[in-house]
Amino acid sequence: MDKIVKMNIIENHSAVVISNMEKRCQFWLPKKKRFCANTPLNPSSSFCGNHTTRSDANWVPCSIDPSHCVLEDNMEAHLKKCPLLKQTQTLLVQPYYQQGINRGTDDDSADHPDFTSVLKRNLVYSLTVPQFSDLLSKICSIHNSISKDIGFSYKVPPACHIWINRLISRKLPYQEKHVQQQASILGNLEEFGVLSSSTQALTEQQFDHTASRYCEDNISSVVEFGAGRGYLTQILADCYGIRKVFLVERKSYKLKADRSLRQKENLALERLRIDIEDLNLNAVESLKGIPYLAIGKHLCGPATDLTLRCCLGEQCDQDIGIEKSVRPQLRSTAVATCCHHLCQWKHYTGKKYLKNLGITKDGFHAITWFTSWAVDADHGSDLSDDGFLQSPLPPGDNDEYGGGGKEVEDIIRNMKAVDRAALGFMCKDIIDMGRLMWMKECGLEAKLVKYVPSDISPENRLLIAKVAAPTISTPTS
Q: Which of 117, 144, 262, 454 has the highest CB neighbour number within 10 Å of its CB?
């Protein structure tokens, strides 16, 4: 009798399991060795929405948010409920929204499309071997002349010891490599005379009462561009004290520093969800007439140029309705550059600098493509900062690079990884030097430094500047 009861229980359990499995997606997950646990898309389908075979109908990018696609027949209905619809409608009525104000111009058209990585690669491969050799020689020659002006400046100020020594609240995320980079950015600002230094490391409780005095006679407001979660500003607020915070970021993030920042006494926080390209900083009401510090960590590609234009750009002379006395007053800027392979000629601020060196628009596209090699390599013991200054020999001077009529594509494939990385870092430095020269033409005292060792981050170039004269002119670029 007991055996019969047990068999019935097993059979009933098996029936329940099979029934539940029938209600689940039938897509097999090899790594997990089970079927997908999601519910099918509809009763007539065996698969969930993630694993249903996509229709062969025409899929087109959403006109509100091109990052996702929609069936062309469903576009009209989708546009009424697209997640970014409300955000876009809200942005369009903001006084600081001005489409393309910081875009810059191309030689041909202000609306010229982006030059993609594929187009850049094809451009390089279309060069003849002598043209490629001449370009490498020019890059090496330019870098040799500017390398002495790019110093190593890894600074960890005592004021940041609260983060370095992990004395912060355990609720705040901590990643050592990011804290080292953020601390060095602030350390360089302190050495540059922008931030007031502290005399000793303080505890978290002591900072709550005394940190505000560090900026009391200096800069009390900060605008962080490409802020992401905002932890660069979090460290600045914790260690130096500020009264106003503006976080500029076009995307939405979880686990932001906003909650922690809002809990600080006497600190006002405003997050501007907008593309830097469209931000008219002069029209931000709560920033008018206030001296501020502009910062950004790893501003990818053209975001660096857009930020510089936003703070120093041509619109300063075009905003007839905004008096100079109520415009925001830039006091200093510190921007850690990144992802130079994404840079675009129309945005780039250093056009004049490159043209004076004989680098054309096509040469700029080639140089930006080379920069991706800098972060492809292993940045361990084989590649030191000194190694980045070693010049790869032009193909015509070295049989290893196949100077005997080989195509450029073959030459590139035969280059050593260390030489490719070296060339990539040279090109990064040249691009950043053009930006540096543009800032100097704007009337700023500026410098370009390597602010952390390459084993912490290979993206370790920092543009740092402060206003050296009361009037800022705007050069053409």
A: 454
